[in-house]
């Protein structure tokens, strides 16, 4: 069981759950905050109403005291009427400046020394002797029986009724608030479902693209998902290009290898049935030639496929000093030139051999040079081939001249086509060498030209964009 649990694939994250979590949880929290704020607002309103009542009670007590005159303390009936409350927690006190407490309730109200304006009700918060919080209203009035005396009339009530009324109002509003919250949550849930349904066109196109690799993006794709569908389209485009290259490679391989393989089969049968040693030797010689041709064809097909691959799948272009790299690459082909009887030379227009930096892939550029030299060795055997480097303001020109028979002017535009060979071309070619050269030149953004050479044969010019030297 542990092994199964360890090997189980991790659960995929759910976009629906994440969206609902991001929307529902803040919504619920917001409604709780709104409820708390609403309760505080109701409590403030309840406090205001009770404060107004408390002021009226204080003014009423002051009038009763003045009416009673010297008969204080208040009669028992007036005391009971004043102390009456729904929860029985109202307190009062009448204090004379000269004579102290004249009348009060069972529990005295804490004394307050802060000055108050004459004839104006002042409110404050206090705590009774038992710790009960109360709201106190105080009023200073002249004494009705002593001209120089002042009476402080105080009425206090507990906060229980204030909080109870605020809770009652909140409970009245709570069903409406719950209904609003549930409706909002339902709308969020439905909105997420409808929003995710907008991804269905992309999913359907992606399913359809398994057959034809068609793009997924369209006018009905939401703009928020457009970067994802565009990335998928890019991937499908590269995959389509790779599949096209694969199909072309298979077709080209079948085209190029059909004749050598048929010849191999024929000469093998000839060697098997022949009783004469010279016929067997001749058949083996043909088999070797056909094998070399098949190997060369397959090698060039692979090179052409690599050169035509999408840029994401090939090497990056890096700074390369042609003044150093090119003569070394030419020198390595001297043995092949000697075998073909070719006088291979190199020419640099810089007297001091200064640097010539380009952005290039050295491996593919070597493939280009080798194909140009192989083509020149075949068409200019026994003559002269020169590789030159010329520096221009915006580019560096790599050129190859041969002293062969050349190519007819009318056929120059067709050089570089796949499997194209001039009518007077030597035997053994595949027609792929210059196609490889054209593909590599296009990858390097280097214009490629064919023209008549001053040596009498063909001149190939490749203009590579100049590049800055790499930092030391």
UniProtKB/TrEMBL annotation:
EC number(s) from the headed UniProt entry: 2.7.13.3
SUPFAM superfamilies: ATPase domain of HSP90 chaperone/DNA topoisomerase II/histidine kinase, Homodimeric domain of signal transducing histidine kinase
Keyword Transferase attached: yes
Keywords for this protein: Kinase, Membrane, Phosphoprotein, Transferase, Transmembrane, Transmembrane helix
Gene Ontology molecular-function annotations: phosphorelay sensor kinase activity
InterPro entries xrefs: 2CSK_N, HATPase_C_sf, HATPase_dom, His_kinase_dom, HisK_dim/P_dom, HisK_dim/P_sf, Sig_transdc_His_kin-like_C, TCS_sensor_his_kinase
Name this protein carries in UniProt: histidine kinase
Organism: Xanthomonas graminis pv. poae
């Amino acid at each position: 069981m542990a092994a199964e649990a360890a090997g189980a694939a991790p659960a995929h994250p759910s976009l629906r759950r994440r969206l609902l979590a991001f929307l529902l949880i803040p919504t619920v929290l917001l409604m709780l905050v709104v409820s708390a704020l609403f309760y505080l607002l109701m409590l403030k309103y309840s406090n205001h109403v009770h404060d107004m009542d408390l002021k009226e009670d204080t003014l009423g007590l002051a009038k009763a005291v003045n009416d009673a005159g010297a008969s204080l303390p208040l009669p028992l009936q007036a005391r009971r009427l004043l102390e009456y409350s729904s929860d029985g927690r109202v307190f009062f006190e009448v204090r004379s400046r000269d004579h102290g407490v004249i009348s009060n309730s069972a529990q005295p109200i804490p004394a307050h020394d802060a000055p108050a304006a004459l004839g104006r009700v002042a409110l404050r918060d206090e705590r009774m002797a038992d710790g009960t919080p109360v709201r106190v209203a105080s009023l200073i009035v002249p004494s009705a029986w002593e001209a120089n005396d002042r009476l402080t009339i105080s009425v206090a009530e507990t906060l229980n009724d204030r909080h109870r009324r605020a809770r009652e109002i909140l409970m009245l509003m709570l069903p409406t608030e719950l209904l609003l919250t549930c409706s909002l949550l339902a709308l969020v849930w439905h909105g997420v479902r409808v929003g995710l349904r907008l991804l269905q066109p992309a999913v359907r196109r992606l399913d359809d693209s398994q057959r034809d690799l068609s793009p997924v993006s369209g006018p009905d794709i939401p703009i928020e998902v457009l970067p994802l569908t565009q990335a998928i389209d890019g991937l499908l485009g590269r995959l389509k290009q790779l599949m096209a290259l694969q199909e072309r490679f298979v077709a080209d391989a079948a085209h190029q290898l059909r004749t050598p393989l048929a010849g191999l089969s024929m000469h093998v049968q000839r060697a098997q049935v022949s009783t004469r040693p010279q016929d067997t030797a001749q058949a083996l010689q043909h088999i070797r030639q056909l094998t070399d041709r098949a190997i060369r064809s397959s090698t060039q097909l692979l090179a052409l496929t690599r050169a035509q691959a999408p840029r994401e799948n090939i090497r990056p272009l890096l700074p390369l000093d042609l003044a150093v790299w090119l003569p070394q690459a030419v020198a390595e082909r001297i043995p092949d030139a000697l075998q073909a009887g070719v006088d291979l030379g190199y020419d640099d227009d810089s007297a001091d051999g200064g640097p010539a930096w380009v952005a290039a892939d050295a491996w593919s550029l070597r493939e280009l040079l080798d194909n140009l030299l192989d083509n020149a060795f075949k068409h200019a055997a026994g003559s002269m081939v020169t590789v030159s480097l010329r520096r221009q303001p915006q580019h560096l020109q790599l050129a190859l001249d041969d002293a062969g028979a050349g190519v007819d002017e009318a056929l120059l535009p067709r050089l570089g086509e796949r499997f194209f060979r001039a009518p007077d071309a030597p035997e053994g070619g595949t027609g792929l060498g210059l196609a490889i050269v054209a593909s590599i030149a296009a990858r390097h953004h280097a214009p490629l030209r064919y023209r008549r050479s001053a040596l009498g044969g063909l001149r190939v010019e490749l203009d590579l964009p100049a590049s800055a030297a790499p930092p030391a």
